[in-house]
Amino acid sequence: xxxxxxEEIPGIxxxxxxxxxxxxxxxxxxxxxxNEIALIDVGPASTFHKVLSALxxxxxxxxxxxxxxxxxxxLDHTGAVGNLIKSFPNAHVVAHSRALNHLIDPEDALWRxxxxxxxxxxxxxxxxxxxxxxxxLGFDRKEIFTVxxxxxxxxxxxxxxxxxxxxxxxxxxxxxxxxxxxIYIPSLDxxxxxxxxxxxxxxxxxxxxxxxxLKPNKIAFTHFGVxxxxxxxxxxxxxxxxxxxxxxxxxxxxxxxDQEEMLEFISKRDKDLLTFLQKxxxxxxxxxxxxxxxxxxxxxxxxxxxxxxxxDKYQN
Length: 316
Ligand SMILES: [Zn+2]
Hints:
40% of the residues lie in helices and 23% in strands. By secondary structure, it is α/β, with parallel strands linked by helices. Bound molecules: zinc ion. Residues 72, 74, 77, 160, 179 line the site of zinc ion (ZN).
């Protein structure tokens, strides 16, 4: 059972969950303040026991877990909540109210949609277990939760998912970004988009502006780890999404079909992608993810064009 644990900032640990034996793929955060504990994005169902082992290793009692914060309820972020909540008698799952049904009944829409979008990767993440309704706290707009002496602000950041939130810890000006700030790969020092369908670019850009307005020093990425220069990274991500949008618009115009050719074309604008394509041999999962990112933009642009055609028809 391989996992790595690191105290990134005093009282904040990051677990490399080693999902599918991959490096720099998916992680999870443990926060301890006073006698209370919060977990952020506990990872997929298949690695829930690594979160318990990490708590054991640090020496934090399960009874002190007060909250499991969910940036959003995709399988790689919160698939483990149903398993974990059974070990935490005093804990509640905190998630945007739009996500509640997925937590209460993951079998229905969430698992089916995940199988459809992710294919065999959904099985790698594992099927989530249901969470009882009374163990969930939902919210619709900005809301603050306290853990020991610290406060955590839940801030809606839709785009990647309609129920996505980022979590801001003002004391240290750190944003736990879930999937709203894309992917950061420490060993290559590059960022990559997360634009799996159905991706809403305008909402995603607004969400990045919201995070920039918090003036964060650090971004705590679920994929992957804590990075400094928070505002610069967010600005880079904003520009990167625009680079992809412009490139894929051209790609569709050119009727390019081959995925490798498409990525190479985008990498003329996106230097981070260029570095990734040249040096990413050990990153199978992230390479697979690029395909979904392409699909998200292609679908988005196809829908826009359809809408334009409808508009044109209307105006004629
Ligand atoms: Zn996600």
